[in-house]
């Protein structure tokens, strides 16, 4: 199975000072759930979420997810941690996003936010619409 390094170890490879012992990979497997926790590593299954599928299609030829891909993943995680009121993890993602911004500036990487805008903003608007529709039917 094809897998790409993401998460704390990928950030560490880029030079981040926030170290974790977790080993995380992005995979694409239509027969598996979104999150897979295995003894050796954790996996996020890109086939189960539109944003992640789009990211997979951009990154699938890479061994590790690019800096742009990491911004997308960290942004997605940050949004979801806030939604779930998991402020400790959201704070970690804020640190990671700050690091990635500084990394991009130092290495002249142009950050592309288009996947986050296209998929996460749409999902947030859809959530608002569904909430309102519950009361207007």
Can you walk through the features of this model?
The structure is a single chain. This protein is α+β, with helices and mostly antiparallel strands. The protein has one domain (3-136). Helices cover 57% and strands 11% of the residues. The protein contains 5 helices and 4 strands. The chain has a 4-stranded mixed β-sheet. A hairpin with a 4-residue loop joins strand 3 and strand 4 (42-45). Helix 2 runs antiparallel to helix 5 (114-136) and helix 3 runs antiparallel to helix 4 (87-106). The N and C termini lie far apart (45 Å). The mean pLDDT is 94.
Quick summary:
The chain is an alpha+beta fold.
Summarize the SSE layout with pairings.
Elements: E1 3-6, H1 7-14, E2 24-27, E3 35-37, E4 42-45, H2 50-59, H3 67-83, H4 87-106, H5 114-136
Task: List descriptors.
4 strands; globular; 5 helices; alpha+beta; single chain; 137 residues
Order of helices and strands: EHEEEHHHH
Count of DSSP strands: 4
Separation, N- and C-terminal Cα atoms? 45 Å
What is the arithmetic mean of pLDDT? 94
Largest sheet strand order: 1-2-4-3
Query: Can you summarize the main beta sheet?
Result: 4 strands, mixed
Provide the structure class: alpha+beta
Rg of Cα set: 16 Å
Give the helix tally. 5
Give the count of structural domains: 1
Strand content: 5-15%
> Which geometry do the CA atoms define?
globular
* Estimated helix fraction: 55-70%
């Amino acid at each position: 199975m094809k897998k790409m390094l993401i998460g704390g170890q990928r950030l560490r490879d880029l030079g981040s000072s926030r170290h974790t012992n977790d080993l995380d990979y992005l995979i694409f497997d239509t027969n598996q759930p979104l999150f897979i926790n295995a003894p050796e590593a954790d996996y996020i299954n890109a086939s189960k979420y539109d944003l992640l599928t789009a990211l997979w299609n951009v990154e699938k030829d890479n061994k590790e997810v690019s800096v742009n891909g990491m911004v997308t993943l960290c942004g997605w995680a940050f949004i979801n941690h806030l939604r779930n009121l998991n402020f400790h993890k959201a704070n970690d993602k804020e640190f990671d996003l700050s690091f990635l911004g500084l990394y991009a500036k130092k290495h002249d990487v142009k950050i592309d936010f288009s996947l986050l805008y296209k998929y996460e903003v749409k999902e947030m608007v859809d959530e608002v619409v569904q909430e309102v529709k519950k009361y207007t039917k």
